[in-house]
Amino acid sequence: MKQEWKAFARAIAAASKREASVEEVEALLERPRDPAHGDVAFPCFRWAKKWKQPPQAIAQMLAEQISHPKWEQVEAVGPYVNVRFNRERVTQEVLSRILHEQGSYGSSYRGEGKTVVIDFSSPNIAKPFSMGHLRSTVIGHSLVRIARKQGFRVEGVNHLGDWGTQFGKLIAAFRRWGSEEAVKADPIRELLRLYVRFHEEMTANPELEEEGRRWFKKLEDGDSEAQHLWHWFRKESLREFHRIYDWMGVTIDHDHGEAFYNDRMGPVVDALREMGLLRHSEGAQVVDLTEEGLPPCLITKSDGATLYATRDLAAALYRRETFGFDYAWYVTGREQAVHFRQVFAVLKRMGHVWADRMEHIPFGMMLQNGKKMSTRKGNVVLLEEVLQQAVARAQKLIEQKNGTLADPEETARQVGIGAVIFHDLKHDRLHDVEFSLDQMLHFDGETGPYLQYTHARACSLLRKGKAANVVPGSLSLPVVMEESWRVVTYLSDFPAVAAQAFDYRDPSRIARYLLQLGQAFNHYYAHVHILQEDGGKEARLALVSAVAIVLKEGLHLLGMEAPEEV
Ligand code: ARG
Questions:
Q1: CA neighbor of 483 nearest in space, from 531, 516, 525
Q2: Which one of 282, 416, 417, 452 has the minimum C-beta count within 10 Å?
């Protein structure tokens, strides 16, 4: 109802003889607690002093002056101006618009001609895909769709951790204990096994650390054995990651990992030196950021090796050059907040004003029994296992519910994956999330399957009502009842919610909105015989169809699928 509210605010602002702006009025609007009092109310208290009149009198005066063809009633009730919309007309407008625009309902052109680079997922090749990377993948992928919905061109970048000392360790471990067949058979698990073993044996044999470092140095110097192994590990891991992405329905435009910038490191360090920004500190080179209130940003180590931050500097310059971005977002855990503040500060020092439009988009941790889920020590929860379990459980649930699905396996995949995605996205991005397979998979409660099920219910009604192509035209809901009005209210807010999700870089806005819409619709469904043959059937089916469209598009923005049957 944001649009209708705005029209009301405009009228009040005009009647105030420009005492207040539309925005000021809008901020004060309320929804009357008792729906009998109308659909929106303006409280006049604030103006009493300025206008030297009691608020009741102000309300009276304003109510007499304003009117609108879409309002049924304007009334001063005590200090409030209440308006009751012509619900039938508003309902008809909202539904026609949705049925007409279909999946593009809620889209906007605000991003036209502008580009956002979104850096997300970005797992590390020597280590498995962690739950933190799952969060980054799911949040980032949803933000890609949210930004596209606002009309932005989006370039998604997978900043893979494919370079660094861990590769020295991995090469050393492979040469000691590894075999080609084992890596080929199950790359991520085997590389993880080698990595974990290396760390375990390192406690007893500290020399291993040095051995790992030597191999990384060889790799950096272009040693052919080291290079060969690195390429191969990378290729095998990437193949696995992509299998997981495909399974999850995630696409990322560019696999530009850290190694991609190898030949751009020299120029970055040179540029910093020429600008006089580098300081020596115990053999290392840093950019001092005292003025910004940040720790120094490490650029090269004493052995000349470059660091994570150096690579992010090179990556930012490359992206600006290649994509000409207007915004650059980095979706990682909040523990990297200082790192990104340093990187942005160094870019600013280099004179790049566009660094002001770079943002770290942090998120909370994934917890298990209140503790961070770790991948280092071997008490690993492999993402793939989590997804497999989710899908297996979804399959069981689906079989209990519906034995006649055309492709139960594919539906189970959509529901299982959807459950994992939604469980992550329904939480405020910054909150920690307690991991629970049990909670993810309920068909009722605040879950992905609940929404998919609600969508499928709507589709089934449309099939039974033979109304796959409900045409907007002379629709009227003969009696606009409270239950359908609530649904319409939510439906009409979808564009505003989609925009908010962009403004706050937070998919949970959409997730929570969909739950409200789903609840409102199920409530309506419980109260009304939608398919009853009477004059209102077509209109009711139009409502159902609009709900199906918005649920499907909302789930799509979260990166989820909306099967027509579950
Ligand atoms: N691979 C990194 C990690 O796992 C995340 C990379 C995030 N992106 C970036 N440009 N630094 O922590």
A1: 525
A2: 282
End-to-end CA distance of the chain: 31
* Sign of the dihedral defined by the CA atoms of residues 545, 551, 495, 253, in that order: negative
pLDDT, one tens digit per residue, over 407-420 is: 999 999 999 999 99
Query: Is the pLDDT assigned to residue 379 strictly greater than 50?
Result: no
What is the tally of structural domains in the chain?
A: 3
d(CA 98, CA 255): 37
Which residue's CA is minimally distant from atom 6 of ligand 1? 122
Using CA atoms, how far apart are residues 212 and 342, in angstroms rounded to an integer?
28
Residue 246 CB burial class (10 angstroms; 0-12, 13-18, ≥19) = exposed
The finding on whether 122 has its CB within 6 A of some atom of ligand 1 is yes
State whether the beta carbon of 256 lies less than 6 angstroms from ligand 1: no
Tell me the CA–centroid distance for residue 182 and ligand 1, in Å.
28
Is ipTM over 0.90?
yes
Q: Are residues 364 and 438 in the same domain?
A: no
Asked whether 159 lines ligand 1 (CB < 6 A), one says: yes
Which residue, among 337, 341, 366, has the nearest Cα to 355 in the 3D structure? 341
Looking up residue 26, the CATH number of its domain turns out to be 3.30.1360.70
Amino acid at 547: V
Position 447: which residue type? T
